[in-house]
Amino acid sequence: MSIVLQVRSGPETTTRILGIPVDSMNLEEVADVMIGWAQGDLPHQVVTVNPEFVMIAQTNKKFRDVLCEASLRIPDGIGIVWAARLLGNPIKGRVAGVDAMHAFARKAASKGLRIFMLGAAPGVAERAASILQDLYNGLTIVGTYAGSPRSEDEEDICAQIERARPDALFVAFGAPEQDLWIARTANRLRIPVAMGVGGSFDFIAGVAKRAPAWMQRRGLEWFFRLLHEPWRWRRMLRLPRFLVAVVCRRDVASIPM
Predict the structure, then answer these.
(1) What SS3 state is found at 38?
(2) Residue (of 18, 87, 16) closest to 58 by Cα position
(3) Among 34, 116, 222, 246, which one is least packed by beta carbons within 10 Å?
(4) What's 232's DSSP letter?
(5) Please, which pLDDT band fits residue 148 given cuts at 50, 70 and 90?
(6) E-only strand ranges, the chain
(7) Peptide bond into 176 cis (omega under 30)
(8) Position 76 in a domain
(9) Are 49 and 75 in contact (CB under 8 A)?
(10) Residue among 256, 255, 249 nearest 22 (CA)
(11) Three-class SS of residue 176?
């Protein structure tokens, strides 16, 4: 399990949804916290909590432990925002993983911080890295690699990352593999900030199309993805199941700090 520190911006900033903690922070706050950690020496894990994560965690104890013990649990999913609001404990809003990546890269460029991008299909991380460097002048990306979460590949991947000495690691293996991989290797790599980002490399590289801004604002990004990737319908069945579970259990409680 990873070595992590907890972060709180004040009292009642964390909410539990079906037993999974979610931190109520906006995009700029998330990026600022990550930048602060990236300039230090201690390892931190950031997870992007959405309804699918919460439902997987109900039956996967290892994944549940990673989510609960992460340094920062950002609300990446409109269902998380709906659930918190429905139960009378609203959070500041959704923070998509790809947006957090962009915000971090923008700030990291001016701080001289070093980034490694791991995962996605071959060539995608390289293309995404090039685009980020074009967007944010001075951004330092010290490595990209498709890799895999398989145990037999772990030694080679860790050796590459250790040679690159990044301040931040973004892993796009998909959940729960990416988050379990980060937790499993944290003690060895000791990267100040490591975050699982799912399909973010695909979005940045243009391999996958993101919903228009108006759909994102209205919480319809899931519907847009379903239209363009209909094979996702089985996975998206977790959303109504999630909402039913929240309504039935009302398992949402603030954590006073």
Answers:
(1) helix
(2) 18
(3) 222
(4) G
(5) very high
(6) 14-17, 20-23, 45-49, 72-75, 114-119, 140-145, 168-172, 193-196, 252-254
(7) yes
(8) yes
(9) yes
(10) 255
(11) coil
Domain assignment present for residue 4? The answer is no
Nearest to 77 by CA among 52, 98, 55: 52
CA neighbor of 143 nearest in space, from 110, 119, 184, 115: 115
Cα angle 40, 41, 44 (rounded to 5 degrees) comes to 85
Q: Which residue has the higher pLDDT, 70 or 6?
A: 70
How many domains, the chain? Answer: 1
Range(s) of the domain holding residue 73: 14-252
The crossing angle, in degrees rounded to 10, of helices 78-86 and 238-249 is 20
pLDDT digits (tens, 9 = 90+) for 49-64: 999 999 999 999 999 9
Residue 68's domain is classified under what CATH number?
Answer: 3.40.50.2300
Q: Which amino acid is at 80?
A: I
Q: For residue 208, is it within any domain? A: yes
Residue-wise pLDDT for 158-209, tens only, equals 999 999 999 999 999 999 999 999 999 999 999 999 999 999 999 999 998 7
Burial class (CB in 10 A: 0-12, 13-18, 19+), 150: exposed
Residue 7 falls inside a structural domain: no
